[in-house]
Amino acid sequence: KGLAANLFIGGIAHEDDTKCGPWMREFAKWMSDPRLKGRFVYLPEYSERLRTRAVRGADIWVSCPWKRMEACGTSDFGAKMNGNINVATCGGGIREHGGEIDATLGTGDTLFIEPYNAEMLYLQLSRATGWMYDFLENGSEAWPRLRMNNFMRGADLDVSRMIEKYEKRCFEPLIMERQ
Q: Measured between alpha carbons, how far is 131 from 118 in angstroms, rounded to an integer?
């Protein structure tokens, strides 16, 4: 039945990637499936410019890089600064700046895909879309509160604050060690 939401996927696997390459081919097939017309978009030529536009128009942002194998998740940063609910693997940057959502308390900003499998991804997306539709249909306050959590935490990701933090945690100890 699905989640009653539109889905946009961007990115392309490396030509030697035997795990994700088949996904990309499957996504390309889905684009021509008449049942998904207008509800599923896959753009293999995903770029920083497109990412910037996507985070501005998204409600839920999914980022699921393989742990210890991919970049820190700068798209999570953009999503957070735009108030998007993050659904992400518990690795990289999101592990450092994200907090698990507890909708009953109205706390947190991220739904972690832990364990990392398709069932947990679906469960977390189902939770997020459930809050969104509960807000749209019943005026529930959980959805806007959780989005505001992300937006407010986005200020913590300001480049100057991050440089200051990493200067103290990384660079100063390395300089001291070298001296």
A: 20
Q: Which residue, among 149, 43, 38, has the nearest Cα to 97 in the 3D structure?
A: 149
pTM: 0.78
Residue in the structure block whose two tokens are 């009953």:
104
DSSP of 22-45: HHHHHHHHHTT-GGGTTTEEEESS
Percent of the chain with pLDDT over 70: 91
Q: Give CA–CA dist 156/58, Å, rounded.
A: 20
Q: How far is CA 105 from CA 56, 123, 141, 142, in A?
A: 26, 19, 11, 9
| pLDDT for residue 61 is more than 80 | yes
Token pair in block for residue 144: 């806007």
Instruction: Name the percent of the chain in helix, strand, coil, to the closest 5.
Output: 55, 10, 35
Supply 28's token pair.
């390309």
Contact 85, 103 (CB under 8 A): no
Chain segment 91-136, per-residue pLDDT in tens: 777 877 889 999 999 999 999 999 988 899 889 999 999 999 999 9
**CB neighbours of 144 closer than 8 A, spacing ≥ 6?**
135
Written as one letter, the residue type at 62 is: V
* Mean pLDDT, rounded, for 2-18: 75
